[in-house]
Each structure stands twice: as structure tokens, then as C-alpha cells.
Fold:
Amino acid sequence: MLLSFLLPIAFSLSASAAPSLTSRSTVHQHRIIQRLPSNEWFHPRDHPVHRLFRRDADTDSISYPEVGSPTWAAAYPSSTPDSSQLPAAWSAALNAAVQAGKIPNIPQSSSLTPNTNPVYPDGYDPTGPDVCSGTYKCQIPGNIWDAPDGFIGTGFDDGPTPASPALLDFLEANNETVTHFMIGVNIIDQPDAFNRSVELGHDIAVHTWTHPYMTTLSNEDVLAQLGWTLQLIHNSTGGRLPKFWRPPYGDTDVRVNAIAKEVLGMETILWNQDTEDWSLTNTGGTTAQAINSSMTTWLTGSKTPGLIILEHELSDQSVQAFEAAYPVMKSNGWNLQSVAQLAAGGQSAYQNAISINTGSVTPADIIFGNVSATLSATASSTLSSSSSTSRTPSSENATPSKNVASSADNSSNSAFSTWSKISVGRSAFYGALISAGVIFL
Ligand SMILES: *[C@@H]1O[C@H](CO)[C@@H](O)[C@H](O)[C@H]1NC(C)=O
Ligand SMILES: *[C@@H]1O[C@H](CO)[C@@H](O)[C@H](O)[C@H]1NC(C)=O
Ligand SMILES: *[C@@H]1O[C@H](CO)[C@@H](O)[C@H](O)[C@H]1NC(C)=O
Ligand SMILES: *[C@@H]1O[C@H](CO)[C@@H](O)[C@H](O)[C@H]1NC(C)=O
Ligand SMILES: *[C@@H]1O[C@H](CO)[C@@H](O)[C@H](O)[C@H]1NC(C)=O
Ligand SMILES: *[C@@H]1O[C@H](CO)[C@@H](O)[C@H](O)[C@H]1NC(C)=O
Ligand SMILES: [Zn+2]
Structure:
């Protein structure tokens, strides 16, 4: 699959085989009403996400356009969202969070050279607590990097794509539920695969609208990237609101993290091992053999902590790499569980519903008290420096670390003052060995 070589990532995220917007004119356009199964959405609460994504069944007489229809697609940005067109309520919520001191006031990073790590102005250490960039392996308290001992938190990035159906078939045949970290424009392009992911009961999470380095963006652009993806999923699943997002390239920092959390109620999931499977189809990229070798090392190694392996539903090859490793995961006694459910402490991957396709959409706490309790019990172990056989000095070397979930699982900003330990691995220069192509993480 071609990955938008040297183009802004806003376009052509999925393969050229993806149906274009105009080719969907054959879709029969009728409108369905997705009535909410329960009588109310959220109880009135302080978190702005309640107001921004509120729907009340009693008053919701809105007809929602059919997923995949032109009307549905036309309501969303066709590429990079224009943050001057943010819904007024979103801007107001962002401004209120800024005024309340909830969004750390640090500068945007900048990408001086394509495909290298964004950098911050002099005086801002990306590995220190004031910035804490995920690209530099700094772990913001409350962000999820590790799975509980003995577990593999399963998830796939960058879907839906034309490779998704094969993955969904495999998962269905093996009775596995996973998390799909989806890109907004890819949902617009692949509504069938989106629908099927939902219908199979997988967890849908946010992977931004057009897959940028988020720390390079203004507050408003960060909000637009996350907000439109959340809105699309919300309006296309009978009102579910994902609880989790994953930053493209792992590129988040305290500012981006706070916008996701304080305005949209989302927590961040990273990873502790990286297959680099996104590069399987690139000249000079990784190989199935190299992934087999890395996987073998991880899967036969320590189960403390558990694994969150970065994988993609981006190409047939990346799907096949997972399929090849799957029996080895099972034969080595790992417990597989959707990474969003693990991060939620066994509870829902949604802010307001038990699951994607069962049970009611119900009032639920936005504050993750239970996530906190469960994760601090399971994720307090340290991650041993892992030797990886990967060929690029990328993101695989999560260093000894401690997740301090309990202090961060609180919609106040107190996490930043109760910092207890910051760990930083090697700086990652994702593009160093890959001379061309947009690099997906
Ligand atoms: C997606 O599912 C909805 C609800 O079942 C349905 O109305 C719609 O036609 C489906 N769209 C596609 C593209 O399959
Ligand atoms: C999403 O649904 C809400 C109603 O719940 C509606 O006001 C809004 O316009 C919809 N957004 C889009 C982009 O379709
Ligand atoms: C599928 O997985 C679920 C959840 O792990 C389990 O309850 C169920 O028994 C499994 N079904 C089959 C047919 O293995
Ligand atoms: C690696 O490849 C060998 C030979 O095909 C296979 O038996 C093994 O299951 C693979 N392991 C993984 C983790 O993919
Ligand atoms: C948190 O856990 C408690 C006890 O297990 C339960 O009663 C409560 O409903 C949970 N809250 C949420 C938001 O899931
Ligand atoms: C959140 O943090 C504030 C300030 O530290 C504290 O007063 C409050 O009890 C916390 N809330 C929860 C739900 O932990
Ligand atoms: Zn990605």
C-alpha cells in the first residue's frame, strides 16, 4: 500500500483502492434515526465533554445520516480541519480550560526536517516534566504504556483501511476483541470496515483526523484533530464516546495530553514494544522476518509488565505479521485483551456506554476513578529495558518506568504537581533509516 509519499498526511491515508467520496454517490441515501436506548445521556457534571457531546433521548428527534452516505461524509472536514471553523462550544470549552490553568502553556514543537522528531525551543526539555514528550519516551502520569503482567493489550492503528477486512475476519475466527485506533478521514473513506468493526464489538478509539505530529499544532488544531474524530465516532455509533486516544508517532506532551483530557475526557494509550510493521511495504523498511524475530523475543520473554505492541491494520503484510505471531502469543500463555479495556481496568472503552454494541448507552462517570484503582494495582511494576532486534532506533526501548496512574486519573491538573518519576529512553529518530515516505506509528 502506498503511504502518501512526501505528501501532507492529510490526503490519501488509505490506499488508492479506497472509494473516493464521489464514488459513493451510488450509496442509497436515506436517513436513519439512531434513538438512544436509555432515557438520558450524562448526568449534569463539571466536565465539558458532557456538554459538548450531550444528547438526550427525549428531545433528540434528529435524523442521523446513514454511515457511508454522502450527507454523512459532507458534514466533516475532507482533510486537515480548519481550526478557524471550530464549533463555538468547542472553542469556548478550550478557552475555559486555558483560563482555568488546566492546559500547560508550553510552546508548540516544530518539525524542522520531515520524518525526524519535532523539537522544542531552547529552554524546553522534552524529557522533563514541563514538556514530557511521548516522542522522547517521557511518560506523563496516567498515560498507559504497559499492560498488566501476563497480558497483551491488543490494538491496531491507522484503520479502517482496505486491509481491515482480513484482520476482522481473522479476529472473528479467533474470537478476539481488540481496540482500533482509527483515523477520521479513513473512517470517511472506509465506512464498511468501520461498520463491521463496530458490529463485531471491537473497541473504537481515536487516532486523530489526519495523523499529524500533534505537538506541532496549536491548541485549536489539537482540539480540531481530536474533536472531529470523536464527533464522527459519536454520531456514527448511536452516541458512543471513546475514552481513549493514541497519538500518531507517540507524539504527545503535557499540553496536548491536557487538551485531550480536560476538554474531551480522553486518556492516552501508548505502547512498550514496536513492530515497525507500518514500514513492511516501504523500501528499506522492516521485514516479516525481523518482526518474527522481535515478536519471538517479546513473546518468550518476561511477562512483567505485560505487552502493548504497536501494530497497524495498514497493509496485508502488517495484518499477516499479527496473524503469524498470534499462535505464539497463545502458546506462550499470554492473555489477550483489547488494550482499551485493559486501560479501563476491565470496564468500558467508552465514556458513556458499556460497550459498542451491547447494553445501553448510559450515564457514566467521565472521571476515571476505577481506571485509576485498577491500573495502579496492575501497572506499578517496572519495565525492564528490553533488547530489541528491530532495525531502526525507534520507539521500542521503553525504559524502566513507573506508571503513576492514580494521581493522574482526576480531571484536575494535579497530576502535574504530583510527579513522582520521569523516565526517558533513547531519543527516537523515526525517520533516520527511512529516507522517504510518511512514517506511521
Ligand atoms: C453502517 O451501519 C448502519 C447501521 O446499521 C447502516 O445504516 C449503514 O447503511 C451502514 N453503512 C455501511 C456503509 O455499511
Ligand atoms: C452530530 O450529531 C449532533 C446531534 O447529536 C448534530 O447536532 C451534529 O450536527 C452532528 N455532527 C455532524 C458533523 O454531523
Ligand atoms: C469468546 O470470548 C469470550 C470472551 O473472552 C468468551 O466469553 C466466549 O466463551 C468465547 N467464545 C468462544 C466460542 O470461544
Ligand atoms: C516465526 O516463523 C516461524 C517459521 O515460519 C514460525 O514457526 C513461528 O511461529 C513464527 N513466530 C512468530 C512470532 O511469528
Ligand atoms: C466503579 O467501581 C464501583 C465499584 O466497583 C462501581 O460501583 C462503579 O459503578 C464504578 N464506576 C464506574 C464509573 O464505572
Ligand atoms: C481530584 O484532585 C483533587 C485535587 O487534588 C481532589 O481534591 C479530588 O478529590 C480528586 N478527585 C478524585 C475523583 O480523585
Ligand atoms: Zn498511526
About this structure: Confidence is low (pLDDT under 50) at residues 1-44, 365-441. The first helix runs from residue 48 to 52.
